Amino acid sequence: MKIFISYRRKDSAREVGRIRDRLKAAFGEQSVFRDLVDIPAGVDFRTVLERETKGCDVMLVVIGTLWAGITDDQGNKRLFKPEDWTRIEVETGLQRLQEGTVRVFPILVLNAAMPSPGELPETLQQLPNQNAISIHDDPYFDFDMDRLIRDIRNSGSYHPVEKLEYFEPETVYIPEGPFWMGSEPREGVPIHETPRHEVDLPAYCIGKYPVTNRQYEEFIIQTHTRVMPVMGWDGQRVPRGLEQYPVSGVTWYEARTYCDWLSKATERDYSLPNEAQWEKACRGGNDCTYPWGDDVDPARSNQGKSQMASVDAYPPQNEYEIFDLVGNVRQWTVTLWGEKPSTPDFKYPWANDGRNNPNANSQIRRVVRGSSFTEDTQLLRCSARSGQFPENAGLLGTRHGFRVAMKV
Fold it and tell me: What is the pTM of this model?
């Protein structure tokens, strides 16, 4: 993740220095750009600023009490001059915001207020519409910075990762950090989904969509693997019109073999996601019941329809811009459940305690996440989980599919 800090030196240089130090500690030395110290001597600063503003994932616009009112030698407000570099930086950020390629955070320091529309040129009128975060001085500085760091991690800055091969699934980068897993005990929530607890994961990538029939067909062709009748294909070929549907009717072993093949074909480290990775991706940086919020929304999934839908038939289901997590096809994870169908051997809190062993015997069930189009709305919950034998491809209407994870 690249974070660009836009500010005026006469307005908030000291405050920006403290903010930058905290961000470097949280995201890494090379992840934070500030012009005063991050432009090498002897280079064209205009070229560097243009590159950094067009390449960042997050732009912080630090606003102090003088930010909008600083003037030039003739008494004209700099912000209204097209060549003003602060204006150019923020204009670039707002333009990219409309394209969906950056997140813009106004940061208020020194008890400043957000400038009114009348204090801004027309090209910056979107800025007051962005929810601002106030960073106060001590004793509240650390508390405010913790919130900013959390919001950056939970922002939509989880960009797609470049594909190396045409058949490679598109993945989304999820930075390191904690999230809340499971549910609070209440009516309708099975005991095996409780207790709600915090899990801290390293960075990883996860499939933006479930693996599609078209992507799985490439694996079939290259490996000469036999397609089983339960998958509903025309022999070894995908039925016409179903290329973008999620592959379904695959066993855990078949899904794992696909990931192994994909790793060799791309020289990247692919696997099935563990269930903590799956749930963090499902929650999309929020702590809601469903990927999109706390209420069932029929417009966000294929749940209740008469047949399966393509992976992109509905909008992204959360702020991570991930599709088809629930309501269309069940999805395998690498995580072990146990031998009994209703009582997992590996209980919450979730831990790296052997439950992600890919080599366990076939009598131990694996965790399945997500839900099919035929299943009840209760199973649209981010925390819903079940255990299935790894050789089980699923019943009609509840066939098993999967999405990939990738190590970074």
Answer: 0.68
